[in-house]
Write a structure and sequence with these properties.
The chain has helices spanning 86-99, 126-140, 167-170, 202-236, and strands spanning 18-22, 30-36, 39-50, 63-70, 111-121, 150-157, 160-163, 177-185, 190-194, 197-198. The chain is of the alpha+beta class. It has a single domain, classed as Ribosomal Protein S5, domain 2. A 5-stranded mixed sheet has the order 1-2-3-5-4. Strands 6, 7, 8, 9 and 10 form a 5-stranded antiparallel sheet that branches. α1 (86-99) crosses α2 (126-140) and α2 packs parallel to α4.
């Protein structure tokens, strides 16, 4: 019979409900909130500021540094252990790689731009939500950027190709599952993040990526609207 209907009633190419806001953390230079389904991410940007220790400085440009973490009671199941761990370090690194192509820090030699991403609630797609929030926060901070970055998971559940897997789909036991987080730069269609966990053929992967490219414009539009709404409110005041 196979996976004939999504457990939450969505179509196979349908995203979970999305909410986005900019300027949500007062003391940060830039900040944003991004929620997709039951996964919520906050991002705060600080800088550019001088980088210490000095041996890490780059005299030709500033550097981007991301720090991803989950709050202790954010996950489904067991309590998340506070502090850095291997998974958090890995996601911090891939987030930097996903955002670096659009961030231009040549005007800030020897400086660092720090991005802190906190997940207050997770139900799959946490790294994608974090990237979306971080991209908005960088724009809110006025960091020179070529474009925003939007991210979403695509993949396979049993015999179906779909977008934006939730926790129940990632944990599906009656057939093979593949979770493929992607991040896309909309203006160039460049993929700045592509990871894969699970079983999927080359043909199925290409189908999943094509499906992801179709929903990315929906995400980027919500990100842009959140940034525009913040400054529209400022103008009215």
């Amino acid at each position: 019979m196979g996976y004939s209907q999504r457990l939450d009633g969505r179509k196979f190419d349908e995203l979970r409900p999305i909410e986005a806001k900019a300027g949500v953390i007062k003391n940060a230079d830039g900040s944003a909130f991004f929620r997709i389904g039951k996964t919520s991410a906050y991002a705060a940007v600080y800088g550019p500021r001088e980088l210490y220790p000095k041996f890490m400085q780059d005299p030709s440009k500033g550097i981007l540094r991301c720090n991803y973490s989950m709050m202790p009671f954010s996950g489904i199941g067991e309590r998340v252990r506070p502090g850095p761990n291997r998974r958090a370090r890995e996601i911090s690194l891939v987030t930097e790689k996903a955002l670096s192509p659009v961030v231009d820090l040549r005007e800030f030699p020897n400086a660092v731009v720090d991005v802190f991403i906190e997940l207050s609630q997770t139900d799959a797609g946490s790294r994608c939500a974090g990237i979306c929030a971080a991209s908005m926060a960088l724009a809110d901070a006025g960091i020179p950027m070529k474009d925003l970055v939007a991210a979403v998971s695509v993949g396979r559940v049993d015999n179906k190709i779909l977008v934006d897997l939730d926790y129940n789909e990632e944990a599906y036991e009656d057939g093979p599952v593949a979770d493929v987080p992607i991040a896309v730069i909309p203006s160039t269609q460049e993929v700045s993040l592509l990871q894969m966990d699970g079983e999927i053929s080359k043909e199925e992967l290409m189908q999943a990526l094509e499906l992801g490219q179709k929903v990315i414009p929906q995400i980027i539009e919500i990100q842009r609207k959140a940034l525009k709404d913040k400054y529209a409110i400022k103008d009215e005041q």
